[in-house]
Design goal:
Low-confidence stretches of chain B: 159-165, 169-195, 197-220
Strand order of the largest sheet of chain B: 1-2-3-4
CATH architecture of the largest domain in chain B: 3-Layer(aba) Sandwich
Radius of gyration of chain B: 20 Å
Number of strands of chain B: 4
Distance between the termini of chain B: 44 Å
CATH topology of the largest domain in chain B: Rossmann fold
Structural class of chain B: alpha/beta
Largest sheet of chain A: 3 strands, antiparallel
CATH class of the largest domain in chain B: Alpha Beta
CATH superfamily of the largest domain in chain A: Cytochrome-c3 Hydrogenase, chain B
CATH architecture of the largest domain in chain A: Orthogonal Bundle
Distance between the termini of chain A: 44 Å
Order of helices and strands of chain A: HHHEEEHHHHHEEHHHHHHHHEEEHHHH
Chains: A mainly alpha (475), B alpha/beta (220), C alpha/beta (175)
Number of domains of chain A: 2
Number of helices of chain B: 7
Oligomer: heterotrimer
Low-confidence stretches of chain A: 1-10, 19-41, 67-75
Strand content of chain A: 5-15%
CATH class of the largest domain in chain A: Mainly Alpha
Number of strands of chain A: 8
Chain lengths: 475, 220, 175
C-alpha cells in the first residue's frame, strides 16, 4: 500500500495553530489526524466557542451575566452573583449540537454548567449558512422569491411577502386589492401552520409526544390547502413582486372554512392537554424570564417581546397589506416566561383564524397581480396571440424587470418577530444588496440571559420557546 | 433425525435472508435534519405519512444506535466536518439517504457556502430529489433503500464499486484511495476545476477542505 | 451631517406610477428620515436618537458599493466603498429612522453600537464576517456565520459567488 495519505504529505494540520479550547493542547502532530483525538479538533470553531473561566476576563464574565445591558437607573447587578473566582474544576463546558434531537435545526449551544445549573451559554451559529444574500445578487427579482422562501422555512410565505413588499415599495406601484387580500390569507394560514409546528415541537421538548403528532395532523390540513393553491407544500414561491403567481382555486372558501372549523375546537383540546397540566405548568412558568427593558435592549421582537408586556405587533402598529381593515387582538403576556410565550402563540392561532374568517367574507374580486406590463408577465394564453405579450414574457423571465435606484427597509410581522428586508437597487434587474433581518437571528441573543441560573433541562425548553429557525438565523 | 422429520414449528431459510430482513425492517434513522427537508422528514414520522409502519419511527439521536443517516437539508461548509464525524460514529452496517436536491447536489445553492452534494463527504446509497421532497417521495426513497438492502449482498462494502467515478470518500478499495492519474483527465482548462477540487473556481477559497483530506487513512 | 428624505431618486428606468405608492410606503413606515453622519459623529448621532425615543435597533447591516460608486447621496457626503446602515425603531412614536455611515475601504473600522444597543452584537459580528468591517469596542469581534479559518469576506463585491460549473464544463455566464 502506497503512502498516499495526503494529510501527512500536505504539510501541517490546518487547525494546528488553534489551541484546543478546553485543554490548551496544540494539535501540531499530523499523526494525530485520523485518530479519535484528531476528529475532535476538526469540528472546533476556535474563537467562536465558549472559553473556560480561566481564559475569560472578569469583564467578560460580568457582561455575560447581563451587566452591560441598559438597565434602568438604580438597578444594579449584584457582583456577588457572579463568581469570578470559581475555578475550572467546578464547572463543565458541554456542547449541545449542532446535531441534536431537539428539532430546532443546527444550533450549537456551548453551555457552562455548575452541576445542573447553567452559568454561561454561547450559541454558535453558521452551520446552515447558505450565502443567500450573495445568491440574491445573482438572481432577478422574479427569481428572488425562490431564494428567500427558504430562509425561514416554517413560514416561507412571509419571506416572500417581505421581499415583494420591498420591491413594490421601490417600484412605487399600487397593488390591486384582491392581491393584498390573497396575500393576507396565505400569510395568516402560514402563521397558523408555523405556530402549530411550534406547538408540536414545543410539546415534544416538554416530552409530550402526542402533541407532536397532533400538531402535525393539523398542519397537514393547511399544507394540503397550500398544495392546492400554490403547487407546493413548502417553499412555495407564490408571492412575487407584483402580486401572486396565480389566483386562488375555485372552492377555496369552503376549504378554508373547513380548516378553520376543524382547527378551532382542536385548539381547545390542546389547551386542555397542556395548559391545565401541572407538569407542563411547572416546567414553563417562571422559566426563561425576560423583562421589557432587556427585550428592547436586545432588539427582540415577536412573541418574545410581547410576552414581556410590550404590545408591539407590526400588523397593528405599522400595518401592511390590509391589516387595518380586519379586526384582531394583539396577545400580550405579563411575566416574560415560557408559559406566556406558549399562551401567546396558542392564542395567536385563534386570532389568525379570526382574521382568516374575515378575509373569506371580505375578499374582493379583481386582479391577483398588478397589470403593469413591465413588472408582471402576461397571461399564458396571450402569448400565443400577441407578439408584444411574448416579448414581455420573454423579457420578464430572462432579463427581469428593472427597479429604480434607491433603498428601502420594509418590515412585516412573521410568527417569530419582525422580519425585515433592506433592499438596495442600482437600477438593474437584480438587487444590488438584499439583506433580510431575520427575527430569529436577533432573538437568539436572548438565550444566554434566559438560560442563566436555570437547569440544563430548561435549556431545551427555553430554546424551543424562542422558536428559532436556523434557516433565517444563518441565511 | 433431520429437519424433514419435524412436522411443525420450524421455518427454514437462509441466514443471509434473515439478516437482511432484520436490517430492513428495523432500520433506525439518525436525526440529521438540517433545513427545510427536516420538516418534511418530521412529517414522514408523524401521523399522516407514518413511517412507523416500516419500523422507522424511532429517530435515534445517538449515532451509535442508528443505522440510517437521512441527510435532510443543505450542508454548509461549517457543517461538513460535523456530518462526517456523525457518519464515522455510526456502526456498521450503515446507510445514507441523501434527501432533497441540496444534499444530493447542492441544489439551487451553487455557491461558496454549500457543499455541492453530500456524496463528496459520505458515500450515499439513495438520492431523493425534490425541494423539499414530499413525504411520498421520501417514503419511496426509503422503500428503494429497503429493496436494496434486502436484495444486495450483505457483506458488500459500499464504495468499492465506483466504476470510473473518482473516489472522494476514501472508503473504496485497498489501494488507500484515489490515484492522481485518474483525476488529471478531468481538469477544466479555463477554470482549473477538477472533481476533487471543486472549490478551484472561486476566489478566496476556504483554507481547509477537511473532509476529503482527513477521511483517507481512517480505519473502516 | 446631512439629512435627506428617503433616498429613492430618479433613474433611467421608466417612471412607474407613484401616487398610491408613496402613501402605501408611509403606511409601511418605509419613507423614514435618513441621516448621514460621518464616522466621528456616528455614535453621538445614534446616542441622540436613542435619547429622542428610539428604544430599539431593528437592523444593522453593511453594503459594499464597489460596483455602484455613482449612487445618489446628499451634498456634503463623500461616498466611500462601504456603508454601515442602521435602522432604528421607536415604539413610543411609531416611527423609524435610518442612519448610513460611509466607511472607507482601506480603513474599514467603525465604532460599535453595543454599548447603546446590546442587540447589535450579533448584527455587527455578521457585518464583520461578511464584509470585513471591524467594530471597535465590540466585546466579541469574531466570525459568526462562517468557519473560523475562512479566508475572505464573501459579501464583498470582489469575492466571487463560488459557483461550481455543472454538467457543461466551461459553460459561462449567469443563469
Amino acid at each position: 500500500m502506497t503512502d498516499s495519505d495526503p494529510t501527512t504529505g500536505a504539510g501541517p494540520h490546518p487547525d494546528a495553530d488553534l489551541p484546543d479550547p478546553v485543554s490548551g493542547e496544540r494539535y501540531d502532530d499530523p499523526s494525530a489526524v485520523g485518530t479519535a483525538t484528531g476528529l475532535v479538533v476538526e469540528t472546533s470553531e476556535g474563537a467562536q466557542e465558549l472559553f473556560p473561566r480561566t481564559q475569560t476576563s472578569p469583564d467578560e464574565l460580568r457582561r455575560e451575566a447581563g451587566a452591560v445591558l441598559r438597565l434602568p437607573e438604580g438597578v444594579v447587578v449584584d457582583p456577588s452573583d457572579i463568581d469570578v473566582e470559581q475555578t475550572d474544576d467546578e464547572t463543565m463546558i458541554i456542547n449541545m449540537g449542532p446535531q441534536h434531537p431537539s428539532t430546532h435545526g443546527v444550533l450549537r449551544l456551548m453551555i457552562e454548567l455548575d452541576g445542573e445549573t447553567v452559568l454561561r451559554t454561547k450559541p454558535v451559529i453558521g452551520y446552515l449558512h447558505t450565502g443567500m444574500e450573495k445568491t440574491a445578487e445573482e438572481l432577478t427579482y422574479v427569481q428572488g422569491s425562490t431564494n428567500v422562501t427558504r430562509m425561514d422555512y416554517l413560514s416561507p410565505l412571509h419571506n416572500e411577502l417581505v421581499l415583494s413588499l420591498a420591491v413594490e415599495a421601490l417600484l412605487g406601484i399600487e397593488m390591486p386589492p384582491r392581491s393584498d387580500w390573497i396575500r393576507m390569507l396565505l400569510v395568516e394560514l402560514n402563521r397558523v401552520s408555523s405556530h402549530l409546528m411550534w406547538m408540536a415541537t414545543n410539546g415534544m421538548d416538554h416530552a409530550s409526544t402526542s402533541m407532536m403528532i397532533y400538531g402535525f395532523r393539523e398542519r397537514e390540513m393547511v399544507l394540503a390547502f397550500f398544495e392546492k393553491t400554490t403547487g407546493l407544500r413548502m417553499n412555495h414561491n407564490f408571492i412575487r413582486p407584483g402580486g401572486t403567481a396565480a389566483d386562488l382555486p375555485d372552492g377555496w372558501e369552503d376549504d378554508v372554512t373547513v380548516i378553520c372549523d376543524t382547527i378551532l375546537p382542536r385548539l381547545d383540546e390542546y389547551d386542555e392537554l397542556l395548559t391545565g397540566q401541572p407538569v407542563f405548568r411547572q416546567r414553563s412558568e417562571g422559566v426563561g424570564n425576560l423583562s421589557a427593558e432587556e427585550a428592547l435592549a436586545l432588539s427582540l421582537t415577536g412573541p418574545l417581546l410581547r410576552s414581556t408586556g410590550v404590545p408591539w405587533d407590526l400588523r397593528r402598529t405599522m400595518p401592511y397589506l390590509r391589516y387595518d381593515e380586519v379586526e384582531f387582538d394583539v396577545i400580550v403576556g405579563t411575566f416574560g416566561d415560557n408559559f406566556d410565550r406558549y399562551s401567546i402563540r396558542l392564542n395567536e392561532i385563534r386570532e389568525s383564524i379570526r382574521i382568516i374568517r374575515q378575509i373569506v367574507e371580505k375578499m374582493p374580486a379583481g386582479d391577483y397581480r398588478v397589470q403593469d406590463k413591465k413588472v408582471t408577465p402576461p397571461p399564458r394564453g396571450r402569448i400565443d396571440e400577441s407578439m408584444e405579450a411574448l416579448i414581455h414574457h420573454f423579457k420578464v423571465f430572462t432579463e427581469g424587470f428593472r427597479v429604480p435606484e434607491g433603498e428601502v427597509y420594509v418590515a412585516t410581522e412573521s410568527p417569530r418577530g419582525e422580519l425585515g428586508c433592506y433592499l438596495v437597487s442600482d437600477g438593474s434587474p437584480k438587487p444590488y444588496r438584499m439583506h433580510i433581518r431575520g427575527p430569529s437571528f436577533v432573538n437568539l441573543q436572548a438565550l444566554p440571559l434566559m438560560m442563566r441560573g436555570g437547569l440544563l433541562a430548561d435549556a431545551v425548553v427555553v430554546t424551543s420557546s424562542v422558536d428559532p429557525v436556523m434557516g433565517e438565523v444563518d441565511r | 433425525m433431520g429437519l424433514e422429520d419435524l412436522q411443525h414449528n420450524f421455518l427454514t431459510g437462509r441466514l443471509e435472508d434473515l439478516v437482511k430482513w432484520a436490517r430492513t425492517y428495523s432500520m433506525w434513522p439518525a436525526t440529521f435534519g438540517l433545513a427545510c427537508c427536516a420538516i418534511e422528514m418530521m412529517s414522514v414520522g408523524a401521523a399522516d405519512f407514518d413511517v412507523a409502519r416500516f419500523g422507522m419511527e424511532v429517530f435515534r439521536a445517538s449515532p451509535r444506535q442508528a443505522d440510517l443517516m437521512i441527510v435532510a437539508g443543505r450542508v454548509s461548509q461549517k457543517m461538513a466536518p460535523v456530518l462526517r464525524q456523525v457518519y464515522d460514529q455510526m456502526m456498521e452496517p450503515k446507510w445514507v439517504l441523501s434527501m432533497g436536491v441540496c444534499a444530493s447536489s447542492g441544489g439551487m445553492f451553487n455557491n461558496y457556502a454549500i457543499v455541492q452534494g453530500v456524496d463528496q463527504i459520505v458515500p450515499v446509497d439513495v438520492y431523493a430529489p425534490g425541494c423539499p421532497p414530499t413525504p411520498e417521495t421520501l417514503m419511496h426513497a426509503i422503500l428503494t433503500l429497503h429493496e436494496k438492502v434486502r436484495t444486495d449482498d450483505i457483506t458488500r462494502r459500499r464504495g468499492l464499486d465506483l466504476g470510473d467515478r473518482p473516489d472522494t470518500t476514501g472508503l473504496a478499495s485497498d489501494q488507500g484511495g484515489d490515484t492522481d492519474d485518474a483525476r488529471e483527465q478531468d481538469v477544466d482548462p479555463t477554470t482549473g476545476w477538477t472533481p476533487d477540487r471543486p472549490d478551484a473556481v472561486h476566489l478566496g477559497t476556504p483554507k481547509r477542505n477537511p473532509i476529503i483530506a482527513r477521511s483517507v487513512g481512517e480505519p473502516l | 451631517m446631512t439629512t435627506a428624505a428617503d433616498g429613492d431618486t430618479a433613474s433611467d428606468a421608466p417612471a412607474p406610477a407613484r401616487s398610491g405608492g408613496s402613501s402605501a410606503r408611509r403606511r409601511l413606515g418605509t419613507a423614514p428620515e435618513v441621516l448621514f453622519p460621518t464616522r466621528g459623529q456616528y455614535v453621538d448621532v445614534v446616542s441622540a436618537l436613542r435619547d429622542e425615543g428610539f428604544e430599539t435597533c431593528s437592523d444593522l447591516c453593511a453594503v459594499d458599493y464597489l460596483t455602484h460608486p455613482g449612487r445618489t447621496l446628499p451634498d456634503g457626503v463623500a461616498p466611500e466603498r462601504f456603508e454601515v446602515v442602521v435602522n432604528l425603531l421607536s415604539l413610543s412614536q411609531v416611527r423609524r429612522v435610518r442612519v448610513r455611515v460611509q466607511v472607507p475601504a482601506e480603513d474599514a473600522v467603525v465604532a460599535t453600537l453595543f454599548d447603546l444597543y446590546p442587540g447589535t452584537e450579533a448584527m455587527e459580528r455578521e457585518a464583520y464576517d461578511l464584509f470585513g468591517i471591524v467594530f471597535t469596542g465590540h466585546p466579541d469581534m469574531t466570525r459568526i456565520l462562517l468557519p473560523e479559518d475562512w479566508e475572505g469576506h464573501p459579501l464583498r463585491k470582489d469575492y466571487g459567488v463560488g459557483r461550481v460549473p455543472v454538467q457543461f464544463k466551461g459553460a459561462p455566464g449567469p443563469r
